[in-house]
Predict the 3D structure of the following.
Amino acid sequence: MDIDSEKLHWIYKKLFTIRSFEERIKKIALEKSVPGYLHTCIGSEAICVGVMSALEADDWISSTYRNHGHSIAKNCELKEITSEIYGRSTGICKGRGGSMHISDFDKGMLGSFGIVAAGPPVVLGAALQEKINGGTKMSATFFGDGAIHNGAFHEAAGLAKLWDVPMLFVCENNGYAEATATDWHLNTKELKDIAKAYDMISYQGDGNNVFEVRQITRDAIIESKAKNTPIFLEFKNYRFSGQYEGDTQLYQPLEEIEEAKKNDPIKKSIEMAAQYNLSLDEVKNIQSEALKEVNDAFDFAETQPWPNPEDALEEVYVNYPRELLL
Amino acid sequence: MRKLSIKDAINEALVESFQNDKNVILMGEDIAGGKGREEYPGTQDSWGGPFGVTQGLLTKFGPERVRDTTITEAGFFGAAVGAAMTGLRPIVELMYVDFLGVCFDQLMNQAAKMRYMFGGKQRVPMVVRTVVGAGFRAGSEHSQALYSLYVHIPGLKVVAPYDAYDAKGLLLSAIQDDDPVIFMEHKRLYMKECDVPENMDPIPLGKGRIRRPGKDITIIAIQRMNLFAEEAAENMAQEGIDCEIIDPRTYSPLDEELIFESVRKTGKVIVVDESNPKCSLASEITSLIAEKCFDDLKAAVIKITAPHTPVPFSPPMEDFYIPSTEKITQAIKKLYHG
């Protein structure tokens, strides 16, 4: 596969950064030293990084409440992400969003939404804008297997196909919709077959293999643009995290978790490094670089100032009399 | 008498309602949890919803009546409307009230209007249980208290208990009621305990409650705001100011007479509501008082609400957003001393 050493380094760095970041957050969640809900993405690293490595840096995406991996892979500033989770004023959303809404518009993120399936229609809109204005940016919406029953997903899929809009519907099939197993809630044998109802092209891949995710996404982008059509991608992986931090995960059988560990995307990436002429030493160096960056980000966030209480009144509208907000 | 948390009181009301009426069913996202992993012991009923309120119901009443759904609020809310019209008494759980947008049509246009627009032949005896409220650092899409969006719709009844006694009694009534009832549970109150008798009668909808009798100032407090109103009233009692706290409990139908009686007595009113101020319960109650008790008022009504902003995530901003004991205390002083 054509992949230069800079990109290769980027891929490994992002994989390790996401994993280290989420492991640190899990620890902090136990200590209860950050406010609010945390939804970590341990097990999704290869999908986040594989897809983002195939997209251009300024392409459009949407994410969900499980967004840390997408945000990191989309090159959001790690310090700002961390500061946001801590609720500090230098956070990526100025402390107004929190962990569930990490998002930087300047990096091509349209938003990280707390409502399941809120993203697909919004990304359709961005893709439509590109089409109307003759733009070249690709648009991709990330959602979980739990979102595929929701009306908003179906309405967006139908419109995207009808309007011949190039975009990617990226489904992370991680085995669970909240506390419900995917194999119970699916109506089709394969999740990707849901796209058939809209005569939409769909592909399926191993969500634990970052290089496979990258290749499928790259091919899909070329095909989607060439044919002016949306494409549905299903990547299978396993949600090692609970629905949220603090979830007892009693519904995830231990045998199943142990089995899934064999295909851990980070483990798999390390095993595959040699195929890309990356030595184990180089891998370890990248791993330490990532860990250092994560540590720096947490050190940064912990010392950042809190927002002023009255900052709650900022940026509700573009233009509105401030005195009418109180 | 035994003490019960709101969480346990709701669970108990659900269990009793299931036992008393075979037509009662429950639907919602992970109201049991573990669906699809039935072959593994210990996986079933491991959630009971995100706050564990419905835990145990699946085990007691089985998967036919306790149904985990996919993430499809419009779908299972609509199903509840049809099931209600044709003989069941469905209870549906809207995991967070913020998700209302996804299924509002089925409530606003179908459940609420059918009886009226189809000539009065239908009844829609369904209950929507949902979680509201700020103060959980849960951000803009998991923290709202959208009371007035429901109260605005003719055909819907709206209930919001502040303690476990009211939670049990009002939920029993809501389930027996023949109209669609929205039952709003505050996430910051679930663990709050009070005395609840083993056997209690349903509490009729539409009846408010005087939580603290007083003669100087009337405080009308919406759900969790009763907590801060009580604290402020307690503080001010030490300064010789005697506040009366009214908890309407049901917002539609509203116990207007209970409010007016108090206003006629005190002539000074504070309304405390944690939701956004425009077209809110606070503005509705204030306007009713202005219309019906104008001559009894000795001062302008003081409204204490959240600002006209989404709920911010960061603690200092969220604390600013939520009405506080301090703000109520200041208002009491202002009204009392003029």
Summary: The longest strand of chain A covers residues 167-173.
